[in-house]
Amino acid sequence: MFAFEMGNIIRKGLQSIGVAARFPRERAIPYWSPERIAALRDRRVREIVHYAATTVPHYQRLFAQLKLDPREIRGADDLRLLPILDKSQVRADPRDFVSISPAGQNAVRFMTSGTTGEPLEIWHDTASFLADVAYKERERMPIRSLDGVPYLYRTCSLRNPIGGFVSGRKHLQTRMLLPFFGRLLEPAMEQAVESTVEDINRFKPHVIAGHGMMIETFFKDVHAAGLRLVRPRVVVYASEELTPWGRDLIERHFELPVWTLYNATESFRIGFSCEASTGIHLHDDLCHVRILRPDGMDAAPGESGETAITNLVNRATVLINYRLGDLASLSAKRCSCGRSLRMLESLDGRADDVIFLASGRTLPPRYIASTCHNFEGVRQYIFIQHGLREFEVKLVPVDTSSADALAAQVVSKFRGLLGEDARVRITICGEIPQPAHGKFRYVISHVKPSWWTNPAGVSREGETGASRLA
Q: Which are the contacts of 445, defined by CB distance < 8 A and separation ≥ 6?
């Protein structure tokens, strides 16, 4: 038994050393020239396409059907020759997208959080899974650049305990010694906010990180209760977006910078905020991002569209031109921080939660959030579209005694946005719980016109029709 344990420790130690050896390169890549980054990206595009065409059942059939030689895909621009992949296709047969190679067959299984309540099975090969520890150095560097933040900084994590981050860390603990992350505090989700604040004040984290809605709800509760919170250096959210109102509360009242990590189970590293806070840097060489208009063409910089990603490093579940479901826009600007990675100008919410009006107009989810921005009497809300003119707003007021006046204000504001013929019903709630499965969605639309189809020609109705209230 002793020999086995020693062998296990030695194996973990060697793997940890191998990952740590990659840190200097990963820190340097964001500062390479755009041309050098593009060359690395295109090489990885060629490699993943060839790998998919030869070892992944779905792509073996696809290239045969298209009569396309994978060598014709020479770089990211040539990915336009391949169709857009819809999430419903992967959900129907997840194993069809897993490589038959040893890397694919000996991979680590993850489940997505399932925005619509339907989790999706994704596999990551062990090599890329371990390498992701090194890739994360790019996201840790901006945090360490802040005054007073040590190399092994302290983090308070406000996350769903069944999420990919927690399960991923458990997998890492079986394969590596973990000297890279610093100390971690994970308060129990079910405990009172007063207890969480006490834990945080004792721990004194440099970073508060976690799911967007959990972070937002926490800071709203702290503000409403008038509690004193030891200030971290930065708040970093991922997985779910903050509402503009919640972000403003953290930035203005608590005077804390708020940064974004853009990631997904399908591709661990997509983008990250830096110390300049001017946008979201994309990990171009790890995950190629396209922004698509409804007609399937690539959107111009500054033009909002739907994200489609190609994971360039995972050798288990291979996803090329995969519709992730987020609305975003690319930036034409270069960041003052000196990184050369392409940037997203903004993340605008979920494509499945676009609001369709009887007038023919469409509203991205951020329009709803902006309308709610000044409702200081609201602790939580969910906006639901039931029909072209039928809407419901679930509200959790800070003070229930002013609920009627607040409801009238909300109705008036939304009619100004949605049209005077809009019927807006207000439902006052005591609490809006976090979903047991799936991401928190503050905007939910059950309306999808027949023309709202993806660029691959696959109707979205099958997926959005399964949407549920949180």
A: 352, 353, 354, 355, 356, 384, 385, 464, 467
